[in-house]
Amino acid sequence: YRRLCDESPSQPLVYLRLRQAIRNVIDRREIEPGHALPSERELAQSLGISRVTVRKALAGLVEEGLLTQRHGAGTFVAERIVKPISRLTSFTEDLRARGLNPRSEFFERGIGEVTPEEAMAMNLSPGTAVVRLHRVRYAGDEPLAIERSVVPASALPDPSLVRDSLYEALEARGCRPRRALQRLRAVLLTAQHAHLLHVSPGSAGLAIERRSFLDDGRIVEFTSSWYRGDVYDFVAELHAE
Ligand code: 16G
Question: How many structural domains are present in the chain?
Fold first, then answer.
């Protein structure tokens, strides 16, 4: 840890340096998912910093979903994928932050005219050109989700611009979403979805619809996703009024 903390000397705040150092340790799989970190006391002693600082760094990583804490047992590298639902991040970013290797296998990556249902959902006029992506999303060899995205061709004129990450392609066009509305629903995965996700038919899943917008209110994506219920925890921080 000391070596890793010294890797980012530009960061003046010790707890942020430690947070980055632990992120690097997780990224490099130096501690495997499900395994424990040294205790707060051990970390504080060996680094010569206060326990308050260690606690602050760990709390930030728990909030990011990289670590979990069990009362009395300590701090562990998260095994399930804990995803904050209040941040507008992409699948690729979520997985990279956990040191996993995001990948897509496409069934469809083409351009066409918007269907009446899509036009309604996206508030587009009939005849508008849209790019359609239909893919299975993987972490390495493990399938985690199925996604069907529709993007107006005005934001993404050519489907082949999406190599693996939709948001990277949109960002390169200056069309990275700034705001989104999302709906989550519990579902039993159909035989077809279960087969693609390597789970038994009827397993629990989360059906998620996301509509994302630019600052000027134009819609940039309408995505329907089916995430595996046995892998994902969706978490949010709630504030009283
Ligand atoms: C996430 C989003 C999805 C978005 C995708 C982009 C959820 C539930 N869905 O999977 O709406 O299209 O990320 O990821 O989080 P990408 O940039 O890796 O293609």
Answer: 2
Single-letter amino acid code for the residue at 104: S
Where among 53, 77, 101 does a domain terminate? 77
Q: Could you tell me if residue 240 is inside a domain?
A: no
Does ipTM exceed 0.85? yes
The answer to whether residue 3 scores a pLDDT higher than 80 is no
Distances (CA, A) of 89 to 35, 81, 209, 237: 26, 14, 14, 16
Contact (Cβ atoms closer than 8 angstroms) between residue 210 and residue 195: no
Q: Does the beta carbon of 210 lie inside 6 Å of ligand 1?
A: yes
Together in a domain, 59 and 92? no
Confirm whether 241 is domain-assigned: no
> Which pLDDT does position 228 carry in this prediction?
94
Among 92, 170, 206, 210, name the best residue to mutate to test ligand 1's pocket (greatest count of ligand atoms within 8 A of Cβ). 210
> Which residue's entry shows tokens 């009395």?
72
162 lies in a domain? Answer: yes
